[in-house]
């Protein structure tokens, strides 16, 4: 079972949890992080909404404590569940996650979940070029929502070449 933290804002994180992880025994969501909704940190996503795998609900922590949470809970992966975030902010969060080292010493799996916009195709293409198709195929095989990561990579690379 992989341990996850879901980073998000304004409900996208809760939606992605309910769609992809709520009844999924392959993953344990350790926490959500709070960034935009006032006074939500130090609360709990209710057990009634979280489902039977989470009888105590899921805690919500401030995102500023991300590195501590990753280390403390030996998190395997972080799911980015923002509706809209700039490439610079996303990469800043990703660098914090990678630097934390998580549950294993290599680079942690990063899942970009449900980003509605990707205006900087060139920057996204540079990110995808750092990940080979074999690794994306491995991630596709374990993705609970069957995201076609290699197809997304091909699309992004094509769009960046049009620019």
Describe the structure.
The model is unreliable at 103-119 (pLDDT under 50). Helix content is 42%, strand content 20%. The chain is globular and about 50 Å long. It folds into 2 domains: 2-117, 3-Layer(aba) Sandwich (Rossmann fold); 118-163, no CATH class. The longest helix has 14 residues, at 87-100. The protein is of the alpha/beta class. The termini are far apart. It has a 6-stranded mixed sheet with strand order 3-4-2-1-5-6.
Record keyword descriptors for this entry.
163 residues; alpha/beta; six-stranded mixed sheet; 7 helices
Which SSEs are present, and which pair or pack?
Blueprint: E1 2-8, H1 12-21, E2 27-34, E3 43-45, H2 47-50, E4 58-62, H3 66-73, E5 77-81, H4 87-100, E6 109-112, H5 121-129, H6 133-142, H7 149-162
Parallel strand pairs: 1-2, 1-5, 2-4, 5-6
Antiparallel strand pairs: 3-4
Helix pairs in contact: 3-4, 5-7
Write out the strand line-up for the largest beta sheet, numbering strands in chain order. Answer: 3-4-2-1-5-6
Low-confidence residue ranges: 103-119
- Quaternary: single chain
SS-derived structural category: alpha/beta
Structurally, the number of domains stands at 2
Q: What is the name of the CATH architecture of the largest domain?
A: 3-Layer(aba) Sandwich
Q: SSE string, helix = H, strand = E? A: EHEEHEHEHEHHH
Main beta sheet: 6 strands, mixed
Strand content: 15-25%
């Amino acid at each position: 079972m992989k341990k996850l933290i879901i980073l998000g804002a304004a409900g996208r994180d809760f939606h992605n949890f309910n769609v992809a992880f709520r009844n999924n025994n392959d993953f344990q969501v350790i926490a959500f992080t709070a960034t935009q909704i006032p006074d939500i940190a130090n609360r709990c996503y209710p057990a009634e909404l979280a489902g039977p795998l989470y009888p105590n609900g899921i805690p919500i922590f401030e995102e500023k404590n991300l590195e501590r949470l990753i280390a403390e809970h030996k998190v395997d992966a972080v799911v980015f569940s923002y509706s809209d975030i700039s490439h610079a902010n996303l990469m800043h969060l990703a660098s914090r996650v990678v630097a934390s080292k998580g549950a294993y010493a290599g680079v942690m799996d990063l899942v970009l979940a449900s980003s509605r916009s990707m205006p900087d195709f060139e920057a996204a293409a540079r990110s995808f070029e750092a990940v080979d198709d074999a690794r994306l195929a491995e991630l596709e095989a374990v993705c609970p929502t069957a995201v076609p990561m290699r197809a997304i990579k091909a699309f992004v690379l094509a769009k960046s070449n049009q620019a």
